[in-house]
Structures are given as C-alpha cells and as structure tokens.
Amino acid sequence: MLRPRLRTAGLTCAVCIALTVPLTTQTPTARADTGSSGSSGSVEIFLPVPTPAGLGALSAAMTQIGRPYKWGGTGPWSWDCSGLVQWAFSTVGISLPRVSQQQAKVGHAIPLSALAPGDIIVFYRDASHVGIYAGLGMVFNAYGPNGVPIGFTPLSHWSDIKTIRRFG
User: Fold this and answer.
1) Calpha distance 82→84 (Å, rounded)
2) Residue in 13, 81, 108, 157 annotated catalytic
3) Per residue in 33-60, pLDDT tens?
4) Which Gene3D superfamilies match (predicted)?
5) What's the number of domains the chain is made of?
C-alpha cells in the first residue's frame, strides 16, 4: 500500500515543504543494519508552500524598499542583490554565502512549479542576479544600475532562471 509521508527534510517548521512517496508497494520490513523501512527509495515532490524562514526573510527585505542599489552594497543604506538576500535571511537565523553564484548552490533546489513566496530565484546562466520571490509573479530585489531603488520586479522580466532555492 502506498502511504504518502509528509516530511520536513529535518526542518522544524509547521509548514511541510516536501511530500515523500515510497517507490515500491512492498510491506515494510525493519532492517537492523541500516534502519531502513525496506522500501527501495522515495521521490520528493516539492509543494508551492512557503517556509516560515522564507516569509520572514521576505518581510525583512521589504523593510529596505526604496533604498538604492549599489554594486557590492551590503547595507544598511544601499544594497546589491546578493547582499540584500544574505542580510534578509540572516535576520531569520540562516547564514548564506555573500555572492549570488554561491547562493545558487545552497538550500533545497525547487522546481518552478513549486515556487513559493520566500524562495530565492537565481537568474542568468552565470548566476549573476538573485532575488526573493514575493508571490503574484513578483520578485523583490536590488537591481541596478547604481542608484535605482530596491523594490519589486515582475518575474517575467527575466527569461533565464538558473535555479530556485528554498531555506528553512
């Protein structure tokens, strides 16, 4: 019998981010050597459900609306894209690398079909831009040239999504 199990991937939050479904219909048998339930594997199906950490980071980032973009800016008076994302997640206790190329490699990779507010979206093949998905097709980000106010940009503005990452 297939029995879906809700799993939070080791996270302690009330919102489930993945559904794990066993790949076999075998009756589970305990194995002392591995602690396995006897199934041959599982598939993670990510749901478009925001995490509390992602929503908290988005809320923190939005307090910076209107501040100017500045290449290399790490706040508090001006920001570049990755500096804003790094700072926003630090306010909810999640330490991210400084630059977007490194931010593209951490957290859980999420398919576009499961995109939820608070997920970060890394753009372009070279991972040179990052923002926080705000919902309703909008991305909150620091976007240049220097001096442009931080704010919302339609997701449709970018045609090249490198990866979507989820934290917390």
Assistant:
1) 5
2) 81
3) 444 455 567 778 889 999 999 999 999 9
4) endopeptidase domain like (from Nostoc punctiforme) (3.90.1720.10)
5) 2
Domain extent at residue 84: 52-166
The sign of the dihedral angle between the CA atoms of 155, 144, 147, 92 is positive
Query: Catalytic residue at 146?
Result: no
d(CA 129, CA 158): 10
User: Does residue 134 share a domain with residue 57?
Assistant: yes
Q: Is 32 exposed, middle or buried (0-12, 13-18, 19+ CB in 10 A)?
A: exposed
Selected catalytic residue, list 13, 16, 108, 141: 141
88 and 154: one domain?
yes
81 catalytic? Reply is yes
Q: Is 13 a catalytic residue?
A: no
Q: Which of 13, 16, 108, 129 is catalytic?
A: 129
Residues 158 and 76 in one domain: yes
Mean pLDDT of 107-136: 97
